[in-house]
Amino acid sequence: MALALRCFRHLPSLLHRSSFAARRGLPRAPAACPALLLDGCRQAVCQMLLTRQLATKKAKGKGQSQAKVNISAALVEDIINLEETSEDMQAVVEALKEDFSRNLSVRTSPGVLDQIIVVTKDGKFPLNQLGQISQKSPQLLIVNMTNFPESTAAATKAIRESGMNLNPEVDGTLIRVPIPKVTREHRESLAKLAKQSTNKSKEALRKVRSKSINQVKKFKNKVSEDTIWLLEKQIQQMADSAAAEMDKLLAAKTKELLG
């Protein structure tokens, strides 16, 4: 027992040896330390050094995988138009901004009714193409259907079923739209709609990314694997950047809606 303790007192110094020292050989065992016990010490040190080296390589590899890729669009224009891909992704972000601004607000304005789709016998039309929308007061909007009186009933139905918690009233060719008082429940409902819109936009973004990556894969037999890998990574980075921008928009809109 005493011999074992004497030998293990040397273990800390072994564990702190560098890999350079390990390559030159481990220190000799104390004279009174059994050879079997020293073999155990050697194995423990070797295992520790190997684990440290693997962890270092993994950390370095992780750092490399997180490095930004920035390929010149001109160099790969025969494979894919990266600028067009970027524009398509940004268009999805801009559409989300527009949706937030136009349809998800606790402030009353005539614009909130503009894009309600009205189904008529002649087709589907935005409400603002059929009627003149104006604001009578903060709590009342008016839709004048004089130009298309035959679509008054369809417009009334579209407003009622818009999901905006509106209950329009018809007066001849005029549609009165009382704006309900903003309640906590209504704010929370709008926040949920904002989340749903963001999820739909992210799905559209994923379609743009998949389309672009599939375009790149068509050239896997014509260019190097490294080129394909770098292009796929850059496309993914572009999509991640757009998704992050959407998350920021959602956070800001949610804060605005919930107050």
Layout of helices and strands:
Elements lengths: L1 H7 L2 H5 L3 H6 L10 H31 L16 H22 L13 E4 L2 E4 H4 L1 E6 L2 E5 L7 H9 L8 E3 L2 E5 L5 H34 L7 H34 L1
Antiparallel strand pairs: 1-2, 3-4, 4-6, 5-6
Helix pairs in contact: 5-8, 5-9, 8-9
Q: Overview of this structure, please?
A:
Helices cover 59% and strands 10% of the residues. It has 9 helices and 6 strands. The protein has helices at 2-8, 11-15, 19-24, 35-65, 82-103, 127-130, 152-160, 184-217, 225-258, and strands at residues 117-120, 123-126, 132-137, 140-144, 169-171, 174-178. The chain has a 4-stranded antiparallel beta sheet with strand order 3-4-6-5. It has a two-stranded antiparallel sheet with strand order 1-2. Helix 5 (82-103) packs antiparallel against helix 8 (184-217). It is elongated.
Helix and strand run: HHHHHEEHEEHEEHH
- Any low-confidence stretches, pLDDT <50, length ≥5? 1-30, 32-65
* Average predicted local confidence, pLDDT: 78
Please identify the structural class as seen in this structure.
Answer: alpha+beta
The shape is elongated
Largest beta-sheet characterization = 4 strands, antiparallel
Question: What is the spatial order of strands in the main beta sheet?
Answer: 3-4-6-5
Number of helices: 9
